[in-house]
Amino acid sequence: MKGSVLRLQLLIAAILVTLIARNESDGYRLRRSVLPSFYNLTINIQASRNGGLGYSFIGEVAITLQTNQSDVYEITLHKNSLDISSCLVYNKDRILCQNVTITSLKYDQETHLLTVPLLEALTANENYTLYFKYTGYVKSRGQGVLSEFYKTDKYHSVYITQLEPVYARLVFPCFDEPAFKAKFQLRLGRPSEYNAVSNTRLIGTTKKGNNSYVDHFDVTPIMSTYQLAFVISKYQARGNRSEFAILSAPENYNYTEFSFNVAERVIDAYNKVFDMPYKNLGNEVLLFATSGWFDDNAMDNWGLIILSEKILVQKPGYTDGHTNKEITCLNIAHEIAHMWFGNSVTLSWWSHYWLNEGFARFYEIFLTHQVNVK
Ligand SMILES: [Zn+2]
């Protein structure tokens, strides 16, 4: 009797949780009437007055998208703290079909949903391009594009990104849900004395004005918006930036040998264990960048893993003990596992996050034991 009452209570609780979850997500989730397939994204970090990195950026994004419906009179996506100055819609022949007045854009501050009204319905199964020009802002804490610095004889700025789970919308207007996967191509403007890395290989650099350059990165694999990442810094690379490297402040270069060796052995072991080598997932590059201030310890961006300095840097007498080395191995093995579990195969919604973390947690222990780094 007790058992059946308990089962009834559990059933009622499960129904309530489902109903509450549905109500909470109503109004927040994107409809799947319009799907993006490609983001052509340019972000220009403005130089500050003293020649360093400024606290705002000019962004331009051209999103290729489609619908399979015949009655789509608006496109809804996300943005947060971006000031849009231009919104244009192009058809499949790249002919401008609508210059959308900024005042006609509908924006909900609570849900971050941005709705672009259309004068004519989209034609089903044809490519359109939705273009935005906007200003975004660099933050000193939290998520989005983050500013930090390290000190040698003077202070040096580092800009890193943290976009999981819902912060890509702080960097560019986008369909900021994990199931809305697409390819991305990034161009990144930066002052000349800095260098930049992103998810994929640097394929070219062009000069822009006296003191700035634009780096062009290769097209990413199909991935979620939260996977996009870049680091702008004066970091030094141990290894090859176009393939496999650890990037750190130059004075930490001598202390990244251990983490480099661990990462090399871990990726080799995964390539054997999974019978699907990393490069076959669709990205040739795997970089690790340090962050002195990173709150979350680590972020598994595809091709550009960001790890806290205390994990990647082993300083004699300070962070080179056995326990610390074990933590380094576990963290590197964990973040690399996400290239398979989370990045290549992705959750459809955040309620399945435990699957990402469950697999990565299992393999961090399994692989750390396998590689047996001393
Ligand atoms: Zn994880």
From TrEMBL:
Keyword match Iron: no
Peptidase M1 membrane alanine aminopeptidase domain span: 258-370
SUPFAM superfamilies: Leukotriene A4 hydrolase N-terminal domain, Metalloproteases ('zincins'), catalytic domain
Gene3D superfamilies with a match to the protein in the record: Neutral Protease Domain 2, tricorn interacting facor f3 domain
InterPro entries associated with the record: Aminopeptidase_N-like_N (IPR045357), Aminopeptidase_N-like_N_sf (IPR042097), M1_APN-typ (IPR034016), Peptidase_M1 (IPR001930), Peptidase_M1_aminopeptidases (IPR050344), Peptidase_M1_dom (IPR014782), Peptidase_M4/M1_CTD_sf (IPR027268)
Cofactor note: Binds 1 zinc ion per subunit.
Protein name (database record): Membrane alanyl aminopeptidase-like
Lineage of producing organism: Eukaryota, Metazoa, Ecdysozoa, Arthropoda, Hexapoda
